[in-house]
């Protein structure tokens, strides 16, 4: 039986009133079919909630957080649970400064590391590819709204793939006559930071994130043409020379990218550096894909954090973008989202 999960702050406080409740929940999450000691193979004799330990029948003690990103953390397990709840359920997101105040942390660096550890666990390494009908397009995010001649372009290139969900329902026309109304909305989405819009960059990303035999709705560019030989179908919408739509031009992509830009500007005040942009894209995608299921969003984020098993130190997180440094997960083919060296910044 799956574990219940909180979808409101009231439910969270009721489920996790103290550290012991978090330890017991994490134990059930990690060993749903029963605990087996990794040292001797015997079952659990009991849980020491005050020390977050499992004691097996042979007397061995195993940390409930061993092998997770929370292991040996200076923060209490309740703090981790609360942070997971905030990150996975708040649609607008949280800036590092807001998070620092909400968590009662004294140092900005601690809040930064905390948040990015959580964001690093928001991409399921075995997530299913999009299918059916999918809009695909590129957009520029950040940087000045207008580019002056001779001024280097600072905008970041982001590629998006959005599943289109269509359905029909009964309705009435202006005269009150019964009709069938055709509606659509966004299903699952994927987003990734790209170093450029070249064919060699975009085609592998689409293939990694979208199932073959999918109808790809794109702009008039020929960059995705090689995907036809891989079994993808196409519907192209062309804009005029001024970028104006000549028809129903990728409406979902435009809407979702606008929402992303509003979040980056409103929540983070435009202070997101290029080297960490993928982390914020991962957060945006995770929350959007679970906008109808707040409880499962909490448990999924916690499960990914548990299965990650690789605690990230502040130095590794801050060194993203350097040669040989750690890279935010994106679901992209290896090396396709690194791009040029970004400007400094920790937001």
Can you describe this structure?
This protein is 32% helix and 18% strand. With 347 residues, it is of the alpha/beta class. Residues 146-153 and 334-347 have low confidence and may be disordered.
Number of strands: 8
Total helical elements: 10
On the 0-100 scale, what is the average pLDDT?
83
Major beta-sheet overview = 5 strands, mixed
Blueprint (SSEs and pairs):
Blueprint: H1 9-15, H2 19-30, E1 44-48, E2 53-56, E3 61-63, H3 77-89, H4 96-103, H5 108-119, E4 133-141, E5 156-172, E6 178-194, H6 199-209, E7 215-218, E8 233-236, H7 251-266, H8 277-289, H9 294-308, H10 314-318
Parallel strand pairs: 4-7, 7-8
Antiparallel strand pairs: 1-2, 2-3, 4-5, 5-6
List the main descriptive attributes of the protein structure presented here.
alpha/beta; Nucleotidyltransferase, domain 5; 8 strands; 32% helix; globular
Provide a compact summary of the structure.
The chain is an alpha/beta fold.
